[in-house]
Fold this sequence. Notes:
Helices cover 64% and strands 11% of the residues.
Amino acid sequence: MAHISDAxxxxxxxxxxxxxxxxxxxEKLLKDSKHWSxxxxxxxxxxxxxxxxxxxxxxxRAKVFYTTLEREETRRKETVGFMDKVFHGKPGLMISxxxxxxxxxxxxxxxxxxxxxxxxxxx
Length: 123
């Protein structure tokens, strides 16, 4: 799977959240976030289709688009790719960077501790 651009994430998240969507439905959902014209959406979906990120089925006169990717698997692959590229494949370095740079609420810290303790037990 090729790298997913920021704009592609917008469309993937729309489809994961709403399921199958027509171009008109996407245009309506995107009206406040970016200046996505109907033509731009169509062009972009064609590119995403050629990359294997989306597909469609014809229902009446409309194309109904859906993503061909699973959300969690896609997140995992993109995270691993990012970690490899930016942190030389070292998850500890990535987590340290996030913890140092971000304001984490106590519940997020507790969740991180819990996940790390589970990982230690599994090792």
